[in-house]
Amino acid sequence: MSAHRPPLFQRVAIIGLGLIGGSLAAAIREQGLARTVVAGSRSTRTLEQGLALGLIDEGSQDLAVAVRGADLVFVATPVSSMGAVLKALRPGLAERAIVTDGGSVKGAVIAEARRALGDHFPRFVPGHPIAGKEKSGVEAADAGLYRQHRVILTPTPDTDPGATARVNALWAAVGAEVLEMAPDHHDRVLAETSHLPHLLAFSLVDTLARQGDSTEIFRYAAGGFRDFTRIASSDPVMWHDIFRENRDAVLEALALFRDGIDRFQNAIEHNDDEALMGVMTRANAARAHFLAMNERTSYTRARHSDDETGMTQQSNPTFLARPGGRLNGRLRVPGDKSMSHRAIMLASLAEGTTTVEGFLEGEDALATLQAFRDMGVLIEGPHHGQVIVHGVGLHGLKAPGKPLYMGNSGTSMRLLTGLLAGQAFDTELTGDESLSKRPMERVAGPLREMGARIDTGEGGRPPVRIHGGQTLKGIHYPLPMASAQVKSAVLLAGLYAEGDTSVTEPAPTRDHTERMLGGFGVPVRRDGATSTVTGGTPLAAGPLDVPADISSAAFFLVGASIAEGSELTLPHVGVNPTRTGVIDILKLMGADIRLENPRDSGGEPVADLVVRSAPLKGIEIPRELVPLAIDEFPAIFIAAACAQGETVLRGAEELRVKESDRIQVMADGLAALGVEHEVYEDGIRIVGGPFGGGEVDSHGDHRIAMSFAMAALRASAPITIRRCANVATSFPGFAELARGAGLDLEVHASKENA
């Protein structure tokens, strides 16, 4: 028993000492979670094995005796026998004993428990540990079986919350991730994700085995057949019980599958290539999302992994950046994220097929891509930055069957709010924990002025619910703050509005939406700071080349500037004048940056950026440049920490409502390194000079993580950066590219939650 903490329970009774029950007993013993572990089983041999393996202290074939005095009872017997087992142990239950179970079907178990336990039912906490292995029986018991696996608790309205909390604590203590859901929802989800696949595997193998040439079929079956049918080796008795006990949910899932098979068959019979590709591309993307959630890793990593078992189960890596070094060579940073979002959106609304080159295969842009797949758009890829979008026209989107999940992407959510305001169907937009804290009323407000019906969550934050079927009317909207996202949302809604829609901005912001609309055949009239579109204009498909993202290039511009002896070439970078604030600011600080081979790419200016190390000096950042570098300020802060003198930023309130409060989070990181600074409500003052290493919490903000990685080039000691999973949102492959250029950077798995 652990000497460091008191046990959670005095006496735990395990009823059914097979793999599931025996593994919990082993974990309880290993972690010192109970003073005494006792088992109840009809099998004398099983009890003897449990004692011999040291899993239990005592056992009994009389279940009422086994549970006597126990403050926790875990029932790990087949679902079909649960009612009889609960009835048999009921006479021995202490008044305050908590009873929980491991059955994979909850509706039937709860009904049996209500009948068998009577007035003790409120102390019953239904549960389902989702874990297992090829072997079964008490001899297969494994104290680590539940580590990094999920356990679902399904308390009823009658369940004592205190009992639920204690069961939750037990599972968490043995290393499981504990979730809660309603019992009927659990049974439906499990029917679709576990019970149906087993049914299909049993059916396929049985169907082929009954063929006359089944020997030849099995002899020449490839790996795909073996992988798909592996679960047909599962225990038929157990699955017989599950199919019977979860009958209704399994039949509903089977009916959904039949509908899908019918669609697939119909597409093949009628040579409907678009429908066939639609099914497969949606399935491919959906499986990647499933792997991402199941393995607690990024969507980007999941979709490029050929070996599920080799994927880390840690979702939030830590960067370790060692001091010194220089950056040299020629490297292509990923495609522009802002343009990648807009390319998918406008190509989906266009008439015809658009081939997009240079698409950013990062989390945020992939969230946008998936949203349009969910609304019926056939999208092939991405494959090495190429995406082929089969546009459905301005009014061709279909109602999604579920809320659209935007992950961490504020751009996706805000622009889609505008685009969806004029659709005929209702939509709900959701996001991750970080996005769910970000303001959405700044977009919803002007859209309501146009006639949209939009609801936001508490405090004007996600989820965003958009009610379709509204008639939108064009408005003139003077932006209260410089925001490309709000401007774009209003202009996209204007595509569906009656008459003209115009936006006037107080300061220039990125104009990718205006430029790209023109490329798709929708003229955007510009008059000084005002941009205007006319509703109802169709979009025409055409090829589109996305340049490299200057926001991603910014980290290397700063890194090469601050590390003596560095020289980097960054080819084909977008240098839209509404995005080059970072170059202008760094040049004012003394950076040696040249634009070579300037050219036009699909209406966007691009150039090769050449940067050499140079001594930097502190400056007061001109306010007119702030909106043009709003995403690049974390990297600029690192340049300021390496510059001679003071750098002062004011007028940057927008930084406080990004993926994190970037002013405060950067200030905290600078403090950890020993950089002198002063925080303002709308900015920061940074005093350059030598600094050390330390530990930085990125707060899940990708730009902060990458900025502090570059800081190591001038640090005197290593910098550890926590919570770096979201680097994949904007810059997949950052660590590999940075190491190749000369940054001494390691990525370590972390057990922290995202």
Query: For this entry, what is the oligomeric state of its chains?
Result: single chain
Radius of gyration, in Å, reads: 30 Å
Low-confidence stretches: 295-314
**What's the rounded overall pLDDT mean?**
90
Largest sheet: 6 strands, parallel
**Strand pairing plus helix content: what structural class?**
alpha/beta
What labels describe this entry?
754 residues; 25 helices; five-stranded mixed beta sheet; alpha/beta; globular
Question: Can you describe this structure?
Answer:
- Helices cover 38% and strands 20% of the residues.
- The protein is built from 25 helices and 33 strands.
- The strands form eight sheets. A six-stranded parallel beta sheet has the order 3-2-1-4-5-6, sandwiched between helices. Strands 12, 13, 14, 23 and 24 form a five-stranded mixed beta sheet that branches.
- Helix 7 (183-209) crosses helix 11 (247-269) and helix 11 runs antiparallel to helix 12 (273-294).
- The longest helix is centred in the first third of the chain and has 27 residues, at 183-209.
Short structural description:
This protein has 754 residues and is of the alpha/beta class. Helix content is 38%, strand content 20%.
Q: Would you spell out the secondary-structure blueprint of this structure?
A:
Layout (H helix, E strand, L loop, with lengths): L8 E7 L3 H13 L2 E7 L3 H9 L5 E3 L2 H4 L5 E4 L6 H8 L8 E4 L4 H12 L6 E2 L1 E4 L19 E4 L7 H13 L3 E4 L2 H27 L4 H6 L3 H7 L6 H10 L1 H23 L3 H22 L4 H5 L14 E4 L6 E3 L6 H13 E8 L5 H12 L3 E6 L2 E7 L11 E2 L4 H11 L6 E4 L10 H9 L3 E4 L7 E4 L8 E3 L5 H11 L5 E5 L7 H8 L5 E3 L2 E5 L4 E2 L3 E2 L4 H13 L4 E8 L6 H8 L3 E10 L2 E9 L20 H10 L3 E4 L12 H12 L3 E4 L2 E5 L6 E4 L4 H10 L7 E4 L11 H8 L3 E4 L6
